[in-house]
């Protein structure tokens, strides 16, 4: 079978499968209550509460328990999926189903549009509650402008980490690679290392996700910079508060660069302080003339769609190159 051939050959159908699955996820999105990732989020949350009942334990102990919890939450499930994949008569179809189970962006998009409508009706309290699905930070202290800015930042970052990174890992390693990354991302979100409870416990999975999502963040930065001006994005990157050491620790280089590109595209200010629990993180500011408003949520979704189309274009180009190579023989 094709699946048992060497790496360059066993993954030759992945670009075509990616295009088909992404189209299916847009046309036939799974409801949130029936999506496999929703169940896994509940499991990860419960496991975190069970294994990490006291965040005041010694740091080294929390690192060890966080690493062991990471292994318990991923290795058995991935081993089961790998076993099923080996015995599957249609491994490419199995890969496609795995990728489909990893994509839930339509839920994010629908939630963001609902929040935008709520903000435009001046129902701030309700909008804060609805934003729980998209924001890990505190929301009770956010104004309408602050909530709009937080949502714009969340959408552009989640688009890269949840969609683009998943698709790129599928191209590189198939359904098992995409699923492995997506499970780690769910754990990183549920054991948020920026909160008091997850400060040390969630650090191992957080470092792993940062490493694995870096190519997708870089891809998104390049895509936005090429569309909206490399010089403009670079100017924002250099002139903001990135040089301040304390703020640099609270903003990774690639997420900061991506938000600079998004700010240049939207022509809106992004970044600034953020609260997790009672802890204030002083992040770099990306200052422009105007602050985000509710209407900018739709504009941010258009930016995410543009980045998604860039990945799909890459996959389509690979498919065309493969067809050209096949036809040449």
TrEMBL record:
User: What subcellular compartments does it reside in?
Assistant: Cell membrane
Range of residues in the leader sequence: none
Q: Where does the record place a coiled coil? A: none
Pathway(s) of this molecule: Cofactor biosynthesis; adenosylcobalamin biosynthesis
Q: Which residues cross the membrane?
A: 12-32, 62-85, 163-187, 207-230, 309-327
Which protein family is it in? Belongs to the CobD/CbiB family.
| Name of the protein described by the UniProt record | Cobalamin biosynthesis protein
């Amino acid at each position: 079978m094709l699946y048992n051939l060497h790496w360059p050959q066993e993954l030759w159908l992945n670009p075509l499968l990616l295009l088909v699955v992404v189209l299916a996820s847009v046309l036939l999105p799974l409801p949130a209550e029936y999506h496999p990732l929703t169940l896994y989020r509940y499991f990860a949350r419960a496991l975190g509460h069970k294994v990490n009942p006291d965040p005041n334990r010694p740091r080294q102990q929390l690192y060890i328990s966080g690493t062991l919890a990471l292994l318990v939450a991923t290795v058995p499930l991935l081993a089961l999926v790998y076993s099923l994949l080996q015995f599957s008569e249609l491994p490419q179809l199995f890969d496609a189903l795995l990728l489909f189970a990893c994509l839930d962006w339509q839920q994010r998009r629908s939630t963001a549009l609902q929040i935008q409508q709520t903000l435009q009706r001046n129902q701030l309290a309700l909008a804060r509650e609805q934003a729980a699905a998209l924001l890990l930070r505190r929301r009770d202290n956010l104004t309408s402008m602050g909530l709009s800015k937080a949502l714009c930042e969340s959408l552009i970052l989640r688009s890269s980490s949840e969609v683009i990174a998943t698709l790129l890992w599928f191209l590189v390693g198939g359904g098992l690679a995409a699923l492995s990354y997506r499970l780690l991302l769910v754990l990183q979100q549920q054991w948020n290392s920026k909160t008091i409870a997850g400060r040390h416990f969630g650090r191992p999975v957080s470092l792993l996700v940062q490493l694995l999502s870096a190519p997708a963040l870089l891809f998104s930065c390049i895509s936005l910079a090429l569309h909206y001006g490399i010089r403009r994005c670079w100017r924002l990157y250099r002139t903001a508060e990135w040089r301040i050491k304390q703020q640099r620790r609270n903003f990774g280089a690639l997420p900061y660069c991506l938000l600079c590109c998004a700010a240049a595209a939207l022509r809106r200010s992004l970044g600034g302080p953020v609260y997790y629990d009672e802890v204030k993180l002083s992040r770099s500011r990306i200052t422009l003339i105007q602050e985000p408003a509710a209407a900018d949520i739709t504009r941010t979704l258009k930016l995410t769609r543009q980045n998604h189309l860039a990945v799909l274009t890459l996959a389509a180009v690979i498919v065309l190159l493969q067809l050209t190579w096949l036809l040449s023989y």
